[in-house]
Hints:
By secondary structure, this protein is an alpha+beta fold. It is built from 9 helices and 14 strands. The chain folds into 2 domains: 4-213, no CATH class; 216-297, no CATH class.
Amino acid sequence: xxxxxxxxxxxxxxxxxxxxxxxxxxxxxxxxxxxxxxxxxxxxxxxxxxxxxxxxxxxxxxxxxxxxxxxxxxxxxxxxxxxxxxxxxxxxxxxxxxxxxxxxxxxxxxxxxxxxxxxxxxxxxxxxxxxxxxxxxxxxxxxxxxxxxxxxxxxxxxxxxxxxxxxxxxxxxxxxxxxxxxxxxxxxxxxxxxxxxxxxxxxxxxxxxxxxxxxxxxxxxxxxxxxxxxxxxxxxxxxxxxxxxxxxxxxxxxxxxxxxxxxxxxxxxxxxxxxxxxxxxxxxxxxxxxxxxxxxxxxx
Length: 300
Ligand SMILES: [Zn+2]
């Protein structure tokens, strides 16, 4: 049976969409002691309602003194934040939620527009991932950064599959970018989060999230694809079927699914790393798997 708190938070998500399903998972983890603090980004009109709902459950809230706005967003819909100028109508309130007032206030006072190392640690993000984010310079591109940081492997732990968030809000863990797809601390957080969900009667949610994180992802020509079906070939390569695949544009932007290469294709990966497309109308198109733009990621 779903816990009373889980019901209350799911209702809050229905009424205030800015409180995402990922936020619901984070607040449950907060209450169960898995996470020290949760950060919510809200429209100022929703702040009072969200605050009173959470405070009635014994949680403490503190708003950061500065308002934030999105200064850059990716084709995937991720936003990067900066302090908003006075009077900006689109400015968001950053509300910190914790089990103790002092923790919420400390987190609210460390806000600097982006997640600073000290705030990252207050939010329960692993040291290694906070340090990796701090090293980033230039235009942020977390998909590429994550791929570059992750050595090629036959299989990656599903618990650190941050890409799964791009396909569904049902995912385990917290909202930060792992240092690599192998980050063991991120895997631990995913497993702890899974237990929290099960303990609150949300086993079906946890199962759905885990299934999504275990689904393989093809990164090719700037598009992230979750193939409908994949298999090992007789010559130890990998093949996947693109027809019916879920896909998200990376760099190439929205509408990539209209690229004729991606519709109704069958893709085969050969042992030498070559990826081959089979299409009746264009024959065979080969792409060498030579850089971060071309990866087939299997999670287990
Ligand atoms: Zn890490």
